[in-house]
Structure formats: C-alpha cells, structure tokens
C-alpha cells in the first residue's frame, strides 16, 4: 500500500435504514400471538402455506425487532441451528446465521456438499433423522428441488427451505413483502376498490427464478394491495409461470400483464423489482442483458427499486445514493424477518410477545 | 412445487428415545466421581485406555444428561472446542459440536484439510502447539492413522481421536456400549456364570473397520457380559483382527466365533451389530453386498439391531419402524455420551456431579 | 494401534508463557483510555496508521488480558464477527476466532472463496454493504491486495486487514512488537541515546513478505528502540523495500543495514526474526533454503528468536526447548493482542478499562 489510506468510517446509517419505518408498521398492526402459534410445528417449504393474518403478525414481529434491535438478545438461548447450505451461498447463509446469533442461539454449519454423508450415498431421510438429534431447526439450500421434501418426512424439528433448485425461496419473499409494508405501512389495512392501485413491475421469469416465483405466490395473498402487476421479460421463455401458478393468480382475481419493453412501462411503476440472475445447476446465466436500471431509466419520482441481491450489471451502482434505493433496506430487513420466523418455529414466541 | 405439501410435523418421539431407559441405567449405577477425575489429563486415543469403573461412570453421566437434557446448559461455558475434521464427516462432527453447544461451550471448526497449514507443509506437532493457544480441547479425524499421535506430543490440552484411518474410533465404541447398557441396564451388575449369555453378532471385520475394532476392545473389558461374540464376514480378509487384538481377546478369556453365513446364526442373536461400510483413503468399498438386514431376516423377536450409520443397502429402511431399531437411539445417545466425556476432559465434572 | 500409548499429558506451561512477563509490561505502562478511543471508528488496514501512544495502550490492554485470562469473558457479548478468509489460513483465522470467543462474542465464518458471491461476480463494495447488516466487525484475508480497500468504502462496521496479498498484515506486526515489549518491558520507556542499542536482525524481504513489511513500519514508530536493524537476505530481489518504505525509514532517522551472510551477523543480534515463507498467489516459494536457524547457529546467549509461523526447515525444532524460543510465546500473545484490538474496535473498551 502506498500512502496512508483514509481509514476512518461512520457508523451513521442512511435514513432508509432508520427505525421510523418499522415503528410505523408496528403501529399499523395490532399484536395477536394466536396467528403465530401454528408456525410452531410447520416446516417452511413454500410461500403458499402462509395465511394473510400470520404474515401480518410475522411482519409486526420483524418490525418490533428492527425498531429496537438490542432489546432481544436471548430468546433463542440454548437452541441450535443446523445451517446446511449444500448449494453455495454467502448472503442467505449469513442472513440466517446473523438472525440466529442476534437472538442468542448456537449454530453448526455445513457449507460443502462434498463433506457430507450425502457424498457417501446416504439418503436425505437418514440425514433428517440424524439432524433430529443434533439441533432444534434446520435451514437447507440445495440445487436439487426435491431435497427439502426428502428430508422433511423424517424430521421432528422444523426445516426452512432456503432455496430448492428453481422452485422456491419463501423467506426471501417474506422479506420482500415485509420491505414493501415497511415502505408503505398503510397498505396493511384492507384496501377499498376505489383507492389508487399500487403498480408493481417485476423484471424476471417465475419459472426460472425461485425468488420471483415465491414473491408472486405471496403477493396474491394480498389481492387488494397487489392487483396491478406487470411481468417484464425478454420473451425467450415459453411458459413463464411454471406449474400451477397461473391458476393461483386467477383464483386470486388478479390480472398479471406482461411486457417486453422496460422503458415503455417503467414510468408508471411504484415498485420496480429486478432479479436478473438465474442459477441453473452450478452455473448462472445472466438474464439482464437487455434489462438494466440506471440513472437514465425514466423512473417515477416516488418509485422504489427492489433487488434480492447479489446484483450484477442489471442494477447500476449510480442508483445506490438515490431515494429509489430500497434494495439495501430490503437486505437489512431480511435479517429481522428471519429473526421473527425462527423465533416462532422453535416455540420461543412467548419470550418476545407483549401479551402471551 | 406443485400443490401445497403437508408441512406439519410432530415433535413426539418414538418410545425408544424416551427417558425411561437412561433413567433406569442411572438407578443401576452408583455415582462415584473418583473414577472420572483421571480423565482430566488424558488424551482419548484408543478404547484400550479405559477402566471398567470409569466406563460405568461415563455411562451414568451420559444417562444423567439424556434423562434431563435441558438441565445442563452451562458446564462448558467459556471453553473452546477445536473441531478438526481433516477427513470429511458430517455425522461425527455434528455429534461432537452439538454435544459441546448443548453444554454452553464455543466452537471453532476446520472442515477442509486443504485450507490448513498442513497443506503448507506444517508438522502436526506444530499444529498441536498452535492449538494450545486457541482452545481447550481438540477433536481430530484424519485418514492418516498416525495423525493424532503426531499431534499429541506437543498438546497441553486434551485431544479426542474421532477416527484415525482404519485404526480406532473410541467414542463411537463408548456410545455403542452405552446404548447396550441403556437397553439392558441390569447388565452393569457383574454377572454370574450361570446367567444366560448375551449373544452378540458383529457383521464386519475389525482390521478394516475402526468402529468394530474399538467396539471389540471395549467389549472385552466386560467379559462377564460380552462372552458370546460371533464375527460374521465373507472370508475375503485373511487376518480379520489386525495387530494385537487376538491376544487381547484371549487375555480376557473370551472366545469369538466366526461365521460366513448370516442367516444361519442370526436367529440366536440378541444384538446384531452391522457396520458395512469401510473407508479406504478417499473412497469407500461397500462390504455389505452379501450381508443385508431386512424384514425377511429371521431375527429373534427380542433382538436389537445396531449400526453406527451412515447406512446403505445393508440395513433396510423397512426395519426402521420395528422394535428391533435401536440404531436411531444409538445415534441419539452418542451426543449425551460425548457430553459426558467432554465435560470430564476439560475439568468441569464438578459442575455436573451430585457429590464432588 | 499396537500397544497402549502413553496418553497422559501435562497442562503446565513453559515459563516463557507464564504471566510474569505481561505483568511486568502492565506495570511499565500507565493506563490511559483516551489513546484507545480513536480506534472505535477506524478500519485496520496498515501498520502506518497507529500512533505510538495508541500502540502502548494496546500492548498494555493485551498484557492485562494475558496476565489474567479468565477474568474477561463477557466484553463482546452480543457482538458478531464476520471471519472472512478468502485466502486459506488456519493459524490467523483461529487466532482471531479464539480471541473473539474468549471475550464472549459470536462468529460467522467464510472459509472458501468459491462459495461466496464473489464467485458469482459480486463486487466487494456490495459484499461490504451486505456485511453491515450481518455483523459488528469483519476480518478479511485475500490474495488480492486491493480487496480490503474495495470493501472498505461501503462498510459502516470496522474491518481488519488480516493479510492482503503481499502488502500488509498489521495485526501480526502488532503481536510481534507486543512480544518484544513483553520480553523487555523496560523498552517502553523512551530510551536515551547513550543506552545500548537493541540489535535486530530480520531474515526476509519486505517487498515480498507482508509480515516483514508491516513489522518494519511499526518498528520505525519506536526509533529510540529499533535503531539498529539488519535485513538479511539472499540478494535475489532488486528492490527489497517496495513502495515508499525506504522514505518512511529515512524519515524516522533509522539506518537499516543489509547482509547476505547470516553466520557473519547473527552473533551480535539480540532479536533474530525469521520469516522464510512467502505466499505468491496460490502457491508458495520457500525463501529459506540458504538461511536456517538451528543449534549450530552461533546465536548470542541472550538472543531470542521470533517467527510468525507456520515454519518449515528454516527454523529447526531442536531450538524449541531452548531459551531462545520466543516464537511460541509470540503465537500465544497474538491472541491477547487481538482481544485488545477487537475490544476497542467494537466500542467495548469501557468494559475492560480500570478507569473510563
């Protein structure tokens, strides 16, 4: 290194990360632990399995954690998390592990499929039976879509699907809807038909991106909020929805439009959700070559951008310092959302509720 | 995922995992901490080094932990475990790490030989000297039989051999005998010659399977209990016992029979121990092609099956729901046995004994 | 294993590791927390950034920890360390992790570059922004010299450079100077010109060895102590100092001699610092073929040998049992030095000072 660098830094955070937003969300939702108790013996496999009221209580609990992070440091004391990332990840793994540590729990990590019994030919059902003896909760990510299901049947502790092939990534979707409600807390009140529609644009293809898939499955549980959705894609995929999702969207009474031209539609959007990278087995294809957000994009003035990250060229760093940037707040909020969900799964809700 | 899965699960455990068995074992052995104190400055290298009375006290302490798991959450507070698995493992590593976490200790893991100083040519003696500064206990597994011995000489903290090549795996054997005594607590009382013999069958070859090797070495310390052993193998190995084990067995006054025909002998056995996979360097050979346990095997009605797991085709999943299945209880008990041993090694016995 | 091994060991430590030395250092420096407070919002990138008085207070705090290790077990409670070793390491990683655990903190480890977002093309600036949400401090080692700088700009939590390519390894240098002052506590008092010079020999090349580079940068902050330095090398590197270091040495008023003949100069040296291994990208070259320390080396009777370890042939194990061996004490002290630095970085100084 040549010359002394400027090594000083500030702990101060941009306003978006402050606690004004979670506090307002906290006020908008009344606490009701009854809707959280059913989470105590469920595996978290799909965005489909959540009821609207349970979702609101999860968001409220996440907001409670985010509004006052240092207050809750012991709810998971004595609990052990098995963090099994057979498909590599830093972001999601550290998000879960940070959430668990923040609440006072202990962690055992598996980060390399090659070092596991699976490499020796052991069945995932036997792996699940083993995990019963070692921990209190499992988080699993694998490139194989069936893995969490194969493990599920022998588990007597909860498992969270942290991404199974191209299928789903439910906790990412929970974090994303949480972020939207933090941005506009009034959305949690059932909206009347004459209120202005929230225009959502999603750049991506559900059948190829588990994040988008899970997100849509959650959005349709709030048809009064998310009733104007445009999917923006390059038209190269025939069936962009994948199994059953079209029926689910229809049943919710929502019309999802499609567009191949980002520039044509972006100026109307309140929320621009971009997720340009799709993992295909052990490599990735970059979807975003023709769709890119930067300072020349004609965004609505009040529009927010969301991205589950990691990002590539599809989301310009020039947007980071603008008020459109809600993707960093999205990552921050994800830790608190996971804290809320994990607390409920391992039956420690009683340690964090105001009224039990 | 197509269609909502059934995501609900039960935390209830089968009766074998209940605390009736450890509680009865607890009653059969009188606590005596004097036999545990010598463990405070020993490395755990071989099943040979344990005295019968020390073993009984370890089993009693393990049973104490298993009878009331939530009672002991702090004995290892402030202690650091160095979990060094140079040979890949998930099962044994998580078993040790879970044990250490359950007792309130902290852990540092090494799971990839390639990232260690050894890859740079550092001697294991120097690695041991380094570990002295960083932790309070080492657990080591390596494909090289000499590794724990090379590390031992410079260590001033205890090391547990968690598997060294084909040589030994002492804590697995401790867990296995613990399981047998949980199953039949009356066995801990010295048995008279006229009492019915416990017939044990071991499917495997000591010279090629460290688990079987260590198991036999422990069994011969209870010659009044384990005096009717049959080794069942395919005859392809010339010297099935390996160095010195034959003399040890003779000195204990035990006759070990051999058989090449599982069907012919299995109907008499009270305990059927199967361990069909042998690790040879970085690959494994499947020993069990001609020896398999399934629902057609003519097991004695009261017989129990044990397997250190992971299992392959040699042990059918159809047996899992039968009362013969003591291999899952075996895995569960192993955590508590390791909790007992680790507590003694790092001089925290005083925090768990009734009388010190 | 044939025959029972001698498995007993002693916890007793050689006198060099006792607490007599840190206690004397503690007495020689008066506590003054004001010099530690500026560390609360600095990244630790280079040895250049430390003031002399801050160094002395860090050494005092390290000595306080080393003199009574069990006294301070909770200062980092609730704090999370992100231990990111993109370049493999066991020694430095475990040293940091042990330090953090000893003080009661929690850790998340990244030990394989291939499993990170960087493998997916994510920028280090984005990785830093992610880390802000997950932990309270980052330790980073990478073969790429620019990595900590690229991460630094987006970080709102402190980062410690644990080795960036060939550039620097500041905490190793801090530990090394700490070791020297533990050995001779009187050196911390400003020395007058007529006092005997401490003769230091460094076997190595600053431009190729980050440890040596950082060490020299710290030594020149004590020109009254380190004013007689000889660099011993084989002459194969043209510019042995690298960027700017020559000017820094001149500005401090120190003359550094060079020698190609270890035998010729070693008999005068009080401190012999050897560091013979240089990492070049993913392989290493062994520098030490022509420079070796063993029992035939004509060392001054009172000379001490230092080596950051891991060692190879350049430092004979025959020297381990001699009083010249201060390299093991050096490794031991490094944990306490890191405890001191980490405590200051995450603003927990108040929990360990006598007077705040």
Counted beta strands of chain A: 11
- Main sheet record of chain A: 5 strands, parallel
CATH class of the largest domain in chain A: Alpha Beta
- Helical stretch count of chain A? 10
The CATH topology of the largest domain in chain A is: Rossmann fold
Relevant CATH superfamily of the largest domain in chain A: Aspartate/ornithine carbamoyltransferase
CATH architecture of the largest domain in chain A: 3-Layer(aba) Sandwich
Oligomer: homotrimer
Distance between the termini of chain A: 57 Å
Give Rg of chain A in angstroms.
Answer: 20 Å
The succession of helices and strands of chain A, N to C, reads HHEHEHEHEHEHEHEHEEEEH
Helicity of chain A, as a percent range? 25-40%
Q: Order of strands in the sheet with the most strands of chain A?
A: 7-6-5-8-11
